[in-house]
Structure formats: C-alpha cells, structure tokens
Fold this sequence. Notes:
The complex is a heterodimer of chains A (176) and B (165). Chain A has 176 residues and is an alpha/beta fold. Chain A is 41% helix and 10% strand. Chain A contains seven helices and four strands, in the order H-H-E-H-E-H-E-H-E-H-H. Chain A has helices spanning 3-9, 15-24, 37-45, 80-89, 100-105, 135-152, 158-169; strands at 29-33, 68-72, 95-99, 126-128. Chain A has a four-stranded parallel sheet. With 165 residues, chain B is an alpha/beta fold. Chain B has one domain (3-155): 2-Layer Sandwich (Beta Polymerase, domain 2). Chain B has three helices and seven strands; from the N terminus they run αββαββββαβ. Chain B has helices spanning 3-14, 35-46, 107-118; strands spanning 19-22, 25-29, 50-58, 69-77, 82-90, 96-98, 121-123. Chain B has a five-stranded mixed sheet. A two-stranded parallel ribbon of chain B has the order 6-7. The interface between A and B is medium-sized, with 27 and 23 residues.
Amino acid sequence: MAVADLMDQVATTRLDELVSWCRKSSLWPMPFATACCGIELMAAGASRHDIARFGAEVFRFSPRQCDLMIVAGRVVMKMLPVLQRIWQQMPEPKWCISMGACASSGGVFDTYCVVQGIDRFIPVDMYVPGCPPRPEQLIQAVVDLQEKIQREGTMFGKEFYIASRQQTKRALQEPK
Amino acid sequence: MPIAETFAALRAVFGDLPTSEFRGATRVVVPAERIYEVLEFLKGKHGFDLLVDITCVDYLNYPGAKDRFGLVYLLADTDANQRLTIRTFVNEPEPVVRSVVGLWDGANWLEREVWDMFGIRFAGHPDLRRILLPDEFTAFPLRKDYPLQGLGERHNFPVLTRGKS
C-alpha cells in the first residue's frame, strides 16, 4: 500500500472537535414540558417537523439517559425543586433549552408562585422566544445549540467552567 | 320540594335568615356558628345531597362590606334538580367554622383548599393541611392583603451553576 493511498482513507482533526461532533449529532432531549409549549415540543418531534432530521429525536423520560433538557412551559415554585433535581440527575455533559416566554422570563405570569425565568436557578444555553414558539423555532434552537457545542465543546467540559464563572456575575435576584 | 318550602322550613327552625335571589339562583345567609346545623338540616331533611363546592371571598376594602371573609357553600339536590347557595361570614383574627367533612366526605379537599388560600380554619377537619401550595409556604395568597407578586417565595431557591451541578 502506497502512502499516497493513505490520504484517501484517513482524516485528521482535533480530538475536541471529534468529540463535540459526536455529541452534537446525537442529542437526547429530556422533555420537561409543563404547559402549552409542550404541545409544540411534541409537534417538533412528530413527522411534519421531525426533529430527528437533526439527530435529537430520542426523547427519554429518565434524566439519567438524557443530555439536553428542554424546559417547555411555566415553572412554579412547587415545581422548581423537581426541575433542579432532574437537572442534577442528568449526566455530564448536558445542555438546557429554555423554550418559550414563560420558561425564559415567567411570561405573563408575574405572580407569587411562578418562577420568573428558570435561568435564575439552573444554567440555560438557548432561549427560544414565543408564546408558544413554533416547532421551527425549537429546531432552530437545536441547530444553534449544535453549532455552539461544535464551536466551544471540549472533551473534558472545560467550557462549562467558563460558563459558570460568567453566570455567577449575573444579578440573579429580584430587586427589593 | 319547591325552594320556597325549604326556605319556610329553614325559617321555622333557625329564625329569620336573610335570603336573596338573582336570576334563579337562591342564597341564604346563616351565622357562622350555625353553619353545620343548617347544612345537616338541608342534607338530611330537604334532599340537598350534593356539596358542589366550598369557596371563599375576601371582602377587605370592599365598599359596604361589614365582614372580612364570606364563605360560600354550593349545594345541589340531585333528585329535584335544585341548587342552593349558603353563605356565612367570618372575621379575623381567628376565622373558624365547623368542618362539614362529617356530612360530605368530598368537603375534605374543598376545605383544605380554602384553608390553603384564605387561612380559614375548619374545626374538626381530620387532616387540615395545605393542598396546592408547598408545605413550607407560610402565607395565604388569595387574601387581598397579600401582594400579587408574593413576598419573595418564588425566589427562595438555591442557584445551580455548571460548576456545582
């Protein structure tokens, strides 16, 4: 076998990029659907929009098997400890999409029991605006997240520690 | 049994109770300490066998209101297809009425909900806990003096970051 043939059979890349490519092409979503956004989430998974085209179709209802949490709908204060526990049960590396106005900011529900944005209490990678967002928007968020994983991802998750430093700087509490 | 007869029987037993009617819906106002007797009488002797709902109104700052809380019992007679609203009023600092779980088992959760939202105690209730809000909640959020956006309960959680989780 000549050395010239070898170049047709071998590709060279960085290990981080290879790992990120594997991860981004096989996202396993954890559907945390609490409201009408959950219906759009189902539509995104169904045949017409078909999130499987982007490798993220394997919805699992056990957080142990997932690496992408999609929070679709409003989260109330009784639900938030559950959300945090599920987030902690997911294995690393993991990402989070905050789908819709309610998950991202509380939406129109500015009341005593509705959490005003899940990003106050868990890390969020992608925000999807809309009330509820169309399935295309969710798919766009998945595609953007894949791009982010490919761009920033590292084999041992260094990028998460950088993200955590950024998050502690943000003002998370409500002004008194 | 026509509703007028029920009213007449109520008046004969419990004295002159204020009644009113609006578009076919009839209401009777009874004193809080006699609510159990009235409901027992209506269930036992007048066929109001179904307790549809127990709910409450907070009359704080309501024009012309004399009492703080108005409790509402919605009854139905499933044989005669009649409905009746029983109202009673309770006040702070210790709003309490006698529980009607002894009459209708279904009152259990309804009374728990009124306790949860308005803080009205039901004496004799077998299990008066919060039903909708978390157990550690301390306020009664449907009272009018509770702020709409709460007292910070919705922000009283640990913040999970990437480093911690």
